[in-house]
Design brief:
This protein is mainly alpha-helical. It has a single domain, classed as Rhomboid-like (Rhomboid-like fold), CATH 1.20.1540. Helices cover 72% and strands 5% of the residues. It contains 14 helices and 4 strands. The strands form 2 sheets. Strands 1-2 form a two-stranded antiparallel sheet. Strands 3-4 form a two-stranded antiparallel ribbon.
């Protein structure tokens, strides 16, 4: 396997550095995370990109970066820096765009992580190198890339079934579809040569779509935003005020907990305060 290319190295280092800054600085974290209200209400579109460089914790970061590293070197060597960069950022933005569309009525929805971009990289590799063997920490033998892709999507579906819906599953879907499409557009012969593994990759995506449409909580009952769209500016401003007030109160509570940790240490938190902090951290993960 070729060594990690210059673009892959830059993405790896930038993501680690950006995520670490988010671990250490909650204000930085909140300023760059994906948040529907901030994007639609405040037109803060940079969050659709910057959220892909933030992660909730080290395990979340390491899982995404290991998945990226496993495929990046071969893909960058095959596609070249420009096309690989196009693939990565297009998948990232596609994941964010799908998240924004599917959660457009939920202004409180937040998410972070490189899942959309990594999904695009994984499924592009499946289309071009289905027999690429990977060795995982918990599996002593190499497995083909298409099987890794199935496990990756399986992990996503498992997350939904176990009520870990704070992970941005829709970003996985948007990135995976985009990665497959770009790979096939760049190398149309792959669709013929690797028809079976590509088909096997599409099946769980279809299952994923069916599952999210029938079970995913954000597609069930949503606020009636027709009231917002058809009311006067006074009512719209009232909704904005409630959204901003809720965000401010949430941030104030978290800042107080972080300040308490800085002064007295994590052990000084009560069980309820620890649960509040854990819930907030979990709500950011994707």
């Amino acid at each position: 396997m070729p060594e990690l290319g210059i673009f892959g190295i830059c993405i790896l280092l930038a993501t680690i550095a950006f995520s670490y800054q988010g671990f250490e600085n909650m204000s930085f974290f909140n300023r760059y995370k994906f948040n529907v209200g901030a994007i639609l209400n405040q037109k803060d579109y940079k969050r659709m990109l910057t959220s892909g460089f933030l992660h909730a914790d080290w395990s979340h970061l390491l899982f995404n970066m290991f998945s990226f590293y496993s495929f990046a070197s071969l893909l960058e060597f095959q596609l070249g820096i420009f096309n690989f960069a196009l693939l990565y950022f297009a998948s990232l933005l596609a994941g964010s765009t799908l998240s924004l569309y599917m959660n457009k009525n939920n202004w409180y929805y937040s998410a972070i992580g490189a899942s959309g971009a990594v999904s695009g990289v994984i499924f592009a590799a499946i289309a071009l190198f289905p027999d690429l063997k990977l060795s995982l920490f918990f599996i002593p033998i190499g497995i083909p890339s298409w099987l890794f892709g199935l496990l990756y999507i399986g992990y996503t579906v498992y997350g939904m079934r176990s009520n870990n819906d704070n992970i941005g599953h829709d970003a996985h879907l948007g990135g995976a579809i985009t990665g497959l499409i770009i790979a096939v557009l760049l190398y149309p012969h792959a669709l013929v040569e690797n028809y079976l593994p590509i088909s096997l990759s599409v099946v769980p995506i279809i299952v994923y779509v069916v599952y999210t449409r029938t079970n995913f909580s954000f597609l069930q009952k949503k606020p009636n935003m027709k009231v917002f769209r058809n009311t006067t500016s006074k009512t719209a401003q009232s909704l904005d005020d409630r959204y901003n007030e809720a965000r401010a109160n949430e941030q104030k509570e978290i800042d107080a907990l972080l300040e308490k940790i800085n002064r007295k240490g994590y052990d000084s938190l009560s069980e309820k305060e620890r649960q509040t902090l854990a819930r907030y951290s979990k709500n950011q993960k994707k």
